[in-house]
Amino acid sequence: MNSTKPKRYWGTQRVARVLQVTPATVAAWIDQGHLKGHKTPTGRRRVESVDLMAFLRAHQMPVPSELVGGRERDVVVVVEDDISYLKALVRTLARDAPEVEVVEARTAMDGLLEIGRLKPNLVVLDYRLPDLNAVQVVERLLDPSRRLTWDVMVVTGGMPMEAEEQLRRVGVRTIVQKAQGMPVVVAARRRCRRGRSHNGDSARGRVARGLSDTAHLDNGGPGHR
User: How many Å apart are CA 225 and CA 218, to the nearest integer?
Assistant: First the structure.
């Protein structure tokens, strides 16, 4: 097993929960230099694990076990441009699995940057985004041998049949219709997690071989974004 771990970064919401302050306060502390952090190209603030640990110890605050023991939480990147759906989905995922870090992106390019930076366990990807569609995003996630090495769930209000066929050909096994509601998305996320566990969980982001049948409901009419 490779003992080298990628650097892990904490977003302002996650840091705020640990420090028991608001995300705005965390952002201000980073901007003012009180808490070491940086901004991503998309303007999001990130704090490296070691810097957060140093801050906690300097202020005599308890250090979460995931920092002390090196255990990392699962990370889900949600790429969705519909703000109301995005917020509802993030709230739903946070309620269902508060131990999971949920990171938001509103464009495909922002999503790709976050995926590359965070190496998430799961990517929840809207089919139709302002800059790219899901097929184009997944094409950029393929490894040199044209395999999809990430767990990707596509959510959609409707897509052409040929697009669905393309997604399945490159390894996307979970496609969820938005009209089916949030419980279906939550259930699909749980199946993805179980699938990773059955396949060794050591390959973070690798597509689980044992995923259940996708929660897909054909919707003949034009769907939402």
Answer: 15
Q: Render pLDDT for 193-208 as a digit per residue (tens, 0 to 9).
A: 765 554 433 333 332 2
Q: How confident is the model at residue 133 (pLDDT cuts 50, 70, 90)?
A: very high
Residue of 150, 192, 191 whose CA lies nearest to 167: 150
> CATH number of the domain at 75-198, please?
3.40.50.2300
71: confidence class by pLDDT, cuts 50, 70, 90: very low
Q: Which CATH number is correct for 9-68, 1.10.1660.10, 2.40.110.10, 3.30.1330.200, 3.30.950.10?
A: 1.10.1660.10
pTM: 0.62
pLDDT value of position 198: 47
Query: What pLDDT sits at residue 153?
Result: 94
CB 59 within 8 A of CB 104: no
